[in-house]
Amino acid sequence: MEEMYHEAELRSLFRKYLQKNCSEEEVRLLMSYSEQETFFPLWQQLLEEIDEERSREELYSLYKPAIDNAYAQLSARVEAPQKRQPTIKRYWWAAAAAVLLLLSAGIYIWRQPAPVQVAQQLDVLPGTDKATLTLADGSVIPLDSAGSQVLLQGATSIRQRGGQLVYDAGATADTVAYNTLHTPRGGQFRITLPDGTGVWLNAASSLRYPTAFTGKERAVEITGEAYFEVTKNARMPFRVKIAGQAEVEVLGTSFNITAYENEHTIKTTLVEGSVRMRAKGQALVMTPGQQAELNAAGQLRIVKGANAAQATAKDAFFTFNKADLPTVMRQLARWYDLEVVYEGTIPQAEFTGDIDKSLTLDQVLQALARNRIHYRIEEGRKLVILP
Asked: If you placed Cys at 185, which of 53, 279, 337, 360 could pair as Cys (CB 3.0 to 4.6 Å)?
């Protein structure tokens, strides 16, 4: 009787899963069923009822490298949620790889006397905490996640703790020098400025800033992408000069700026507080949740329908909302330090969702393959996108 109950529950959960209507608790329960050999025959029956585009053998060969990682990451989020709470709908690609594909692969292995040999290919690890610090005198100091050191510039001390720099300006700091923090492709770094403002630099970005803030304002300059959490000081506004083309003024707030040379626009995304963005003789005031854009034609405007939570250098995810393939590839190229080329016509595809920055390149590309994006990887970290 109890077995019949569990079979009915499994069937019900499976139907809800296919309809993308499972809660986190139900996905957890579905995972527990997938680990019990007693229910393998039922899984076999359920899967055979699905009109699949590919056979299970093809699915197994295609997705095997990503299954274990996706399963572990989704399990970790369910058991110990982080500060940024994900939803099952948001991470549906992970749930699909972790449950449905895991089940398909598991049943396939169970039925075969020997495992299928999956072809190996060159893989690329994700980016890490690394940067270079250029001091005012031209000295260049390499930084990485393992570093620990203390530097002195006049009355200012600079402490490195792994992937973070912390500035502490002494009370007698009367001379100001300018330093530059630069992240390479495949790198990221965090810095706490002398006023306590936190800045997260994404890959291929730079931040120029003073060793102490004096005078009537706090001014820094960036290229690339950075997320700011600005310490409030109404008497000394914080200004960010963006790639020599625009400027953001704040009193105390959290926002993200994207200003890469190979992007068509400069974007400021406001998470909380209030900022004023100026460019080309134009100005606008932003409210939380808004995104301002300076386009190639020099027009400054608020982007309708933008999601403030979708793009910050601080996050451990790349988030896309109806992004085309070149937009996705530019992000991946910076993070994995790739050269991306297109062979023939660029595939027309649209992507919405998150990509975990901790995944290897191969795991990310397996997800893209599910959207019929074909590719090959060549030596020299070249990724060729095929028609």
From this structure: 337
